[in-house]
Amino acid sequence: MNSPLSSNLVTDETSAAPTDPIDIFRDARGLFTMVAVDQRGSLRHMLSAGHGNTVVTDEHLTAFKAHVIDAVGDAASGVLLDQDFGFAAATSSRCPVILAADILSSSEPGGPVDIAVLDDAVTAETTERFGAKALKFLLPWHPSRRSEAIDLAYAFMARCRDIGLPGVLEGVVRPREGDTVTSEGFAEALITAAADLTQTQPDLYKTEVVYTSEQDHDLAVATARSISEQLYCPWVVLSSGVSGENFPSAAAAAVTGGASGFLAGRAVWSEATSAPQPEAYLKTHAANNLQKITDRVWASLA
Q1: Cβ distance 64 to 47 under 8 Å?
Q2: Among 9, 74, 236, 275, which is least packed by CB within 10 angstroms?
Q3: What is the chain's pLDDT, residue by residue, as a tens digit (302 residues)?
Q4: Is 118 helix (H, G, I), strand (E, B) or coil?
Q5: Distance CA 163, CA 142 (A)
Q6: Residue 29: what are its φ and ψ, rounded to 5°?
Q7: How many other β-carbons are positioned within 10 Å of the β-carbon of residue 101?
Q8: CA atoms lying within 13 Å on the CB side of residue 180
Q9: Are 139 and 168 within 8 A, CB to CB?
């Protein structure tokens, strides 16, 4: 299982050449500093709500994703996109692309994603067209359905092996109920999910972080250390559920505990969804937001 952080990061830029296919998504210092723009229904809702509940077309989604990737392309070490609305962004990306291989839905209208199935339309031909270097699958994990989650994770990783690409497995606790509503219960669930899903040998694991304020710092570090002890692969944190203001510190806490970086979406670009001119806002702020997260993570390691 994962040893301390130093084994997951390349701190000497001269030795940063990829040794594993997933390493193509590391930056020059060995950190994963990636941006996620694979949101579909949730992004449509965010853009609509941010502009007076206006109708958001497929073309709006496609353009927004392309603008995000254009804004962060020189700062991100990788980007996560979907095949539905991400093709324009993928073809113009200046860094490696991860392609989402999931179809996501919610058991409650307007609720969080808690249902995922493999997207059979993501084939070898699709990944070649997108220029994808890895696949990603968001997997809702719940204590009462552990074996079901493991089986689905195995199916995703088998798909990755068939296509010949690394697999990024995203384990999220859904639904949040009962003990998982508390920070401590949520932390325990994240650790157990990592222990379950590492059996399927993902190339990179992606998960949530326990962080609502600075008061959660110690718990976030301890949780990250426990997750690191479970995994046989490097892992990163996502930004959903954490405010943009808090995410740099949350990511730093995770990396202190053994994570190898982040794959952040909303913390980088969510404010643009309500800006009068999203493209202009992204050009001005998105790369800066990404750099703040990266700088805060490296400062925690100094």
Answers
A1: yes
A2: 74
A3: 654 343 455 444 334 445 799 999 999 999 999 999 999 999 999 999 999 999 999 999 999 999 999 999 899 999 999 999 999 999 999 999 999 999 999 888 767 888 999 999 999 999 999 999 999 999 999 999 999 999 999 999 999 999 999 999 999 999 999 999 999 999 999 999 999 999 999 999 999 999 999 999 999 999 999 999 999 999 999 999 999 999 999 999 999 999 999 999 999 999 999 999 999 999 999 999 999 999 999 999 98
A4: strand
A5: 28
A6: -100, 5
A7: 30
A8: 17
A9: no
Written as one string, the DSSP assignment of 123-192 is -HHHHHHHTEEEEEEEEEE-GGGHHHHHHHHHHHHHHHHHHT--EEEEEEE-S--GGGGSHHHHHHHHHH
How far apart are the C-alpha atoms of 136 and 104, rounded to whole Å?
Answer: 12
Query: In terms of DSSP H, where are the helices of the chain?
Result: 41-50, 58-72, 87-92, 124-130, 146-163, 183-197, 217-230, 247-256, 266-269, 278-301
CA distances from 16 to 3, 29, 134, 186, 214 (A): 19, 7, 19, 35, 33
Q: Which CATH architecture has domain 26-296?
A: Alpha-Beta Barrel (3.20)
* Rounded-to-integer distance, Cα 192 and Cα 214, Å: 24
State how far the alpha carbon of 192 is from the alpha carbons of 180, 188, 216, 232, 254, in Å. 12, 6, 19, 14, 16
Tokens of 147: 């074996």
Provide the annotated active-site residues: 206
| pTM (two decimals) | 0.93
Handedness of CA 267, 231, 113, 87 (dihedral sign): positive
CA 226: distance to chain centroid?
19
Reading the block at residue 156, the tokens are 């995703």
Token pair of 299 as six digits: 């400062």
Measured CA to CA, the distance from residue 158 to residue 191 in angstroms comes to 23
